[in-house]
């Protein structure tokens, strides 16, 4: 076994080469060197590496800060300006999810959809500050459209059984089919 291998147990340091044990605080300490011995001049190569490292750190930090600033101030995508991927009735959309959720999720999830149907109810959600419009389907459950709080709407009150067309992004099926960032279309 190498004589430099030490195993610490409690306050004892065992040196297996010499077969004796001393408490750690009694182990010999390397004498301190004078300042003249400790101060070595940094070579030009070391200075260059340090300089390059600092430059790389500043460039990466600046690039990260610029990316964060851009993402934070990125303009809002307005659903009203997007082209609809699908135009369906509320009953058709709900029945697609009710019959085969996996296929409907693959087809509609994350897509911009125009849904036409009769209003079941329109409720202002005070905690979110948005309006949720529920549309009738052939089922007790419904299609829920949450109006986009960042968009300007012609109106936010909808009469029961009124036929409306709403464009939004499908976020999936959780008992009801959910659409977010919705706007009313003509």
Summed up, what is this model?
With 186 residues, this protein is of the alpha+beta class.
Q: What's the arrangement of strands in the largest beta sheet? A: 5-6-7-9-8
Name given to the CATH homologous superfamily of the largest domain: Nucleic acid-binding proteins
Q: What portion of residues is helical? A: 25-40%
Mean pLDDT across all amino acids = 82
Regarding quaternary structure, how should these chains be classified?
Answer: single chain
Q: What is the domain tally? A: 3
CATH top level of the largest domain is: Mainly Beta
Secondary structure class reads alpha+beta
Distance between the termini: 86 Å
Beta-strand fraction estimate: 25-35%
Largest sheet: 5 strands, mixed, barrel
The name CATH uses for the topology of the largest domain is OB fold (Dihydrolipoamide Acetyltransferase, E2P)
What's the order of the H and E elements?
A: EEEHHEHHEEEEE
According to DSSP, the number of beta strands is 9
- The general outline is elongated
CATH architecture identity of the largest domain: Beta Barrel
- Give me the Rg, rounded: 34 Å
Structure overview:
The chain has 186 residues and is α+β, with helices and mostly antiparallel strands. It folds into three domains: 1-39, no CATH class; 41-74; 80-185, Nucleic acid-binding proteins (OB fold (Dihydrolipoamide Acetyltransferase, E2P), Beta Barrel). It contains four helices and nine strands. The strands form two sheets. Strands 5-6-7-9-8 form a five-stranded mixed barrel. A hairpin with a 4-residue loop joins strand 2 and strand 3 (20-23). Helix 3 crosses helix 4. The longest helix has 29 residues, at 44-72. It is elongated and about 85 Å long. The termini are far apart.
């Amino acid at each position: 076994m190498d004589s430099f291998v030490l195993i610490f147990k409690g306050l004892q340091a065992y040196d297996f080469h010499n077969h004796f044990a001393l408490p750690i605080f009694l182990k010999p300490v390397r004498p301190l060197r004078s300042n003249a011995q400790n101060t070595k001049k940094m070579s030009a190569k070391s200075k260059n590496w340090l300089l390059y490292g600092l430059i790389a750190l500043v460039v990466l930090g600046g690039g990260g800060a610029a990316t964060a600033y851009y993402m934070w101030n990125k303009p809002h995508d307005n659903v009203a300006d997007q082209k609809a991927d699908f135009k369906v009735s509320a009953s058709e959309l709900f029945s697609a999810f009710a019959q085969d959720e996996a296929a409907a999720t693959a087809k509609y999830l994350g897509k911009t959809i125009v849904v036409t149907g009769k209003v079941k109810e329109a409720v202002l959600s005070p905690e979110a500050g948005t309006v949720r419009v529920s549309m009738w389907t052939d089922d007790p459950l419904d299609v829920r459209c949450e109006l986009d709080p960042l968009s300007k709407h012609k109106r936010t009150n909808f009469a029961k059984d009124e036929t409306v067309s709403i464009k939004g992004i499908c976020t999936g099926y959780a008992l009801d089919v959910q659409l977010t960032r919705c706007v009313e279309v003509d």
